[in-house]
Amino acid sequence: MLNVQNLTFSYKNTPVLKDISFKVETGENLAIIGESGSGKSTLLNLIYGEFDLNQGHIFWKDTEILGPKYNLVIGYEFMKYVHQEFDLMPYITVAENIAKHLSRFYPEEREERTGELLNVVELKAFANVKVKTLSGGQKQRVALARALAKQPEIILLDEPFSHIDNFKKQSLRRNVFKYLKDKNITCIVATHDKEDVLGFADNMIVLEDKKILEQGKPEQLYNNPKTPLIASFFGEFNVIDDRIIYANELKVVEKSNLKVTVITSYFKGSHYLIEANLNGDKVFFEHNTLIEKNSNLYLSITKP
Ligand code: ADP
Ligand code: MG
């Protein structure tokens, strides 16, 4: 289990994280979300032991994670970290970059494991290509495979799919998170993309203003967002009578006390997102067809 206790940290004079405490069970997938600059990467760096804490403790099982002041070599065998900037060896191939982290004493297993990892990140066809010729997204996939190669007990992923295009993203996420679950590898993912969280994270933490604003299961945070910031992570929403109502929780009805005038319809594939005017405020709702501009209609809240 990872145990973060009352962690406080500043870069020089800028406090970034204040009194942060949480636990992650072995094999659990924890998502850390928050706006840009909220301290997600800093928190991962601290868990990795990259900096010294001002206050608090971090334990992985019985081992205390120590910063550079107490630990000459940064990092631990049981932990891998895929940074936002991934440093690969550009002049050797994809397969060699991955295999570098596997034991040389078992060449057959080494080859088999490299093949398995190339499948996870869907780069089999690029095995013998030099890394310097790859795109940003492909490099990110090599970095992921390389981190998985050593079978860490815990892996830290900083916006792991940010450079990967939408054609590949969905299947890659499923592969990587399934691989981690199958091997019971504890995983902490910093992200601002709900697609990295929903369907994969067991728990999530929301960072805001140096603190943990909220933590819980994705279902709990989605169904009961404490603040607009949390709702905005999940999708388009409205505040109506002080309640947070997602765009898909409003539907058109015959008559109600929510009379709106349509401004624009946005095509979203499976539905249209309709922007409308409700007593001078903007309101967003989902509808399965386009609605003409200036149409007047009534909405009802479907949320229980
Ligand atoms: P996030 O990953 O959520 O975008 P970061 O952890 O990168 O946030 O940054 C949190 C805050 O710490 C920001 O205000 C950022 O400017 C500051 N910061 C990040 N890295 C450093 C650094 N090496 N030195 C000083 N300030 C930093
Ligand atoms: Mg970051």
From TrEMBL:
Superkingdom of this protein's organism: Bacteria
Keyword field: ATP-binding, Nucleotide-binding, Transport
GO terms for MF: ATP binding; ATP hydrolysis activity
Domain annotation ABC transporter: ranges: 2-234
PANTHER family the record matches: SPERMIDINE/PUTRESCINE IMPORT ATP-BINDING PROTEIN POTA (PTHR42781), SPERMIDINE_PUTRESCINE IMPORT ATP-BINDING PROTEIN POTA (PTHR42781:SF4)
Protein name (database record): ABC transporter ATP-binding protein
Higher taxonomy: Bacteria, Pseudomonadati, Bacteroidota, Flavobacteriia, Flavobacteriales
